[in-house]
Amino acid sequence: MNSTSLATGQRSLGDRTTEFPLFPPLTRGCPKTSTDEIAYPLEVVYDYARVDPRLFDQEPGADIARWSPLLPPLAAPTLGEGGTPLVEFDGVHVKDESQNPTWSHKDRLNRVAVSAAVAAGAPGVVVASSGNHGASAAAYAARAGLPAIVLTSAGSPPAVQAFARAYGARVVSVPVESRWPLLREVVDRLGYHPVSNQTVTHTGHPFGPEGYKTISYELYRQLGGKVPAAVLAPTGYAELLYGVWKGFTELRLLGLTGAVPQMFSCETAAGAPHAHALATGAPAAIVDMGPSDAYGIAGTVGGHRGVLAVRESGGEAVRVTDDEMRQAQRDLARQGMWQELSGAAGLAGYRRLRRDFDGPVVCIATSSGFKDVGVGAETFPMLANPTLEDLV
């Protein structure tokens, strides 16, 4: 089977007739359709007529290169991302992305985005992140032999900062408002490849969400050739949500399925920019942010990808509270799946909907509970004279 990428170019999600060459990746949004108020992302286009349908006969497993024809060129080596388990629990299927190499779904994105940096001949990568994304980018940069700069905030978990430093990244805490201007300066003056957003509304890296499509391919196989009735995903910038939706649209385009699932963005109720955009009919939105411990999805800036995935799939935006996520987090942990608070938003969203679906429901759980703020700070007393009764 041909394992060569069939990617042919990039096109704007603001106007799908607007196309560009595959390289260089347009990391500052579509230059033709974006405005001062709304930046439109780009997606990767493929020669679908050349896709061998036997591609989907294989079982899921580590290394997303097994899906190479429907990914941009993978120039960076693998760390064994993908092939994560699908676990039945409480009437749904939980896709446990915490079992990726750096314990989060971001490894799928960074295998693709760091590959773009390698292919472009960049001297390094730079990322603005307070959590999973920074650690994952650092790991894949290290594996590819590239230096990485991670711009984080003082409020990010010390354990996550240590995680990124362990891979050799230069991790610097800066004021939140300084992160993106400094990132752009690193790109412009040092030539580093950005794997973070640089635009007024979120566009991010045009190749990144392509890595998330592999979740759809795996779900198709893990569900026995079935399409979920619904997929609920923790949603910050919505790259995950969009990538999973695009993967299922490709399966339908290739004639392997007849439908796509409804996509549900599960956002913290303290902000929820995609919920706001969908409610107002806007292509993207920027909102005020209230307090939330779900820092992985707590953002003021939304993007067009999430709006597109929810709207075109007939899904909804679901606002979940920290308490709802904490309950879902506790229940998942009692089943052996300890998730970061943000990572439990999908299950919390399903419970908030209180809806029956005509088919399997998948909740994506994105990251290990080790990533939460304050983990490890709690201490427990030592038992000086332990007895059996103390243990039961």
What does this structure look like?
By secondary structure, this protein is an alpha/beta fold. It has three domains: 7-60, no CATH class; 86-103 and 205-371, Rossmann fold; 106-194, Rossmann fold (3-Layer(aba) Sandwich). Helix content is 31%, strand content 15%. It has helices spanning 106-119, 132-144, 158-166, 176-190, 208-222, 239-253, 273-280, 304-313, 322-333, 345-353, and strands at residues 7-12, 19-20, 42-46, 86-89, 92-96, 125-128, 148-152, 170-173, 193-194, 230-234, 262-268, 316-320, 361-365. The strands form three sheets. A six-stranded mixed β-sheet has the order 4-5-13-10-11-12, sandwiched between helices. A four-stranded parallel β-sheet has the order 8-7-6-9, sandwiched between helices. Strands 2-1-3 form a three-stranded antiparallel β-sheet, with no helix packed on it. A hairpin with a 6-residue loop joins strand 1 (7-12) and strand 2 (19-20). The termini are far apart. The model has no long low-confidence stretch (mean pLDDT 95).
